[in-house]
């Protein structure tokens, strides 16, 4: 008979302890390089051209606007940013969608987890229209059981109210769930809620070096969890 210890993954849990795999999208499954480029480079560049500003001035203006709503639904609301900036952010997302892609190992991980017959749910702070564009480009919606955006839940994942509402919506058991995210604030609220198996996506962008968490077990490639 196979011992329990021999069935442990390299990260110390057995897959038979897991029913639900809860995954962040951007920075965990999809390469955050797209979002970094979009919000930190291209959107300021378009804003500078529209308002006849220098790019550094536009970047400073936009970063201040981002910070003013950080943690609120407006932070990821593409319609809010369209109205606020005077730029069609949905159309711009579509225009630049060629840059959207998976992180290395993410697709193989999804296939392996589905082969283990686990329920896979993407929990994202992203706006529904952004999710639709990314799904069309990557087919991510076909590789998971469900994608839940924060607007369905009513708040972002770093808010304590998120997890009780999400559990009611999705129906997972925190004690038998695995959750992976690149945002430590989201991991913190999940941990406080009682999600048992929590990992930090330490390599969120292919263009940036890893940034391992000091508080949560880091992963640079999701395939490390597949024994």
Task: Give a quick set of tags describing it.
single chain, 227 residues, alpha/beta, Rossmann fold, 6-stranded parallel β-sheet, 9 helices, 6 strands, 41% helix
Outline the structure in words.
The protein has 227 residues and is an alpha/beta fold. It folds into two domains: 5-31 and 102-225, HAD superfamily/HAD-like (Rossmann fold); 34-98, no CATH class. It contains nine helices and six strands. It has a six-stranded parallel sheet, sandwiched between helices. Strand 2 (119-124), helix 6 (128-138) and strand 3 form a beta-alpha-beta unit. Helix 1 (33-51) crosses helix 2. The radius of gyration is 18 Å and the shape is globular.
Describe the structure in brief.
With 227 residues, the protein is an alpha/beta fold. Helices cover 41% and strands 12% of the residues.
Catalogue the unreliable spans: 1-8
Total number of beta strands: 6
Q: How is the main sheet built?
A: 6 strands, parallel
Rg (CA only): 18 Å
* Bulk shape: globular
Number of helices: 9
- What is the helix content? 40-55%
Give the N-terminus to C-terminus distance in angstroms: 18 Å
- Would you give the CATH topology of the largest domain? Rossmann fold
Q: Provide the domain count.
A: 2
Q: Write out the strand line-up for the largest beta sheet, numbering strands in chain order.
A: 3-2-1-4-5-6
Q: Mean pLDDT score, rounded? A: 94
Beta fraction of the residues? 5-15%
């Amino acid at each position: 008979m196979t011992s329990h210890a021999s069935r442990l993954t390299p990260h110390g849990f057995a897959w038979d302890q897991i029913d639900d795999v809860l995954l962040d999208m951007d920075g965990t499954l999809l390469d955050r390089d797209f979002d970094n480029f979009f919000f930190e480079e291209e959107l300021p560049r378009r804003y500078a051209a529209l308002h006849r500003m220098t790019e550094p001035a536009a970047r400073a203006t936009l970063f201040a606007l981002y910070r003013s709503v950080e943690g609120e639904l407006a932070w990821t609301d593409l319609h809010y940013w369209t109205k606020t900036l005077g730029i069609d952010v949905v159309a711009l997302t579509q225009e630049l969608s060629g840059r959207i892609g998976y992180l290395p190992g993410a697709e193989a991980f999804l296939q392996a987890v589905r082969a283990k017959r686990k329920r896979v749910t993407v929990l994202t702070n992203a706006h529904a229209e952004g999710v639709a564009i990314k799904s069309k480009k990557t087919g991510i919606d076909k590789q998971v059981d469900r994608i839940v955006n924060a607007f369905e839940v009513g708040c972002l994942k770093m808010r304590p109210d998120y997890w009780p509402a999400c559990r009611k919506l999705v129906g997972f058991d925190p004690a038998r769930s695995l959750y992976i995210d690149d945002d430590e604030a989201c991991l913190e609220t999940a941990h406080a809620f009682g999600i048992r198996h929590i990992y930090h996506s330490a390599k969120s962008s292919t263009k940036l070096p890893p940034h391992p968490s000091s508080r949560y077990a880091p992963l640079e490639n999701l395939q490390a969890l597949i024994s």
